[in-house]
Amino acid sequence: MALWYIGPGVMPRLIGWEKPDDHLFKINTDGSSIGNPDASGSGGIIIDHCGNFVTAFSRKLGNTNCLTVELWGIRDGLAAAINLNLHNKDVLEADSAVAVSLINLPPPNTHILSTLLQMLDGYIGNSGDQACASGTK
Q1: Contact residues for 82 (Cβ-Cβ < 8 A; gap 6+)
Q2: Any idea which architecture 19-127 has in CATH?
Q3: Over the chain, what HEC string results?
Q4: 31-72 tens-digit pLDDT
Q5: Residues whose CB is less than 8 angstroms from the CB of residue 59 and which lie 6 or more positions away in sequence, other chains included
Q6: What is the predicted pLDDT for the residue at 6?
Q7: Rounded distance between C-alpha atoms, residue 110 and residue 76, angstroms
Q8: Which residues make Cβ contacts (< 8 Å) with residue 18, sequence separation at least 6?
């Protein structure tokens, strides 16, 4: 599947989504905040290796910032995968480079998001997966 994205002052470019390898599931997550901070929410979808819909999830988060929203989307995607017994069978894609780096190299316990990051670490440990996300923002 490929889409053209055209934004203000942005040249059109081809973007797309690729199915995961055979017998794997892909978790795609995203979050949005109208302001930073302001009204926010996150969500995502799980698709199988044939491109078939497995499940979707979303969460209204109230007034918070973009990074918190992205992390909640990742957390809810991993929780959904665990609830569906997709242990060691999933690939996570998120578009926040900052969120991905915080998961891969957790900050000290004094970080403002340390509780949420510890929850994510627990989900990653329970699923047997590594935080293998691709961040672009």
Answers
A1: 123, 126, 127
A2: 2-Layer Sandwich (3.30)
A3: CEEEECCCCCCCEEEECCCCCCCCEEEEEEEEECCCCEEEEEEEEEEECCCCEEEEEEEEEEEECHHHHHHHHHHHHHHHHHHCCCCCCEEEECCCHHHHHHHHCCCCCCCCCHHHHHHHHHHHHHHCCCCCCCCCC
A4: 998 888 889 999 999 999 999 999 999 999 999 999 999 999
A5: 41, 42, 43, 72, 73, 76
A6: 53
A7: 23
A8: none
Q: Identify any residues that bridge with 43 across adjacent strands, giving them in sequence order.
A: 30, 58
What tokens were used for 91? Answer: 């690939």
Instruction: Give, in order, the Cα–Cα distances in Å from 19 to each of 50, 103, 129.
Output: 7, 23, 18
The domains of the chain are located at 19-127
Q: Residues 84, 60, 88, CA angle at the centre, nearest 5°?
A: 25
Place of tokens 């998120």: 94
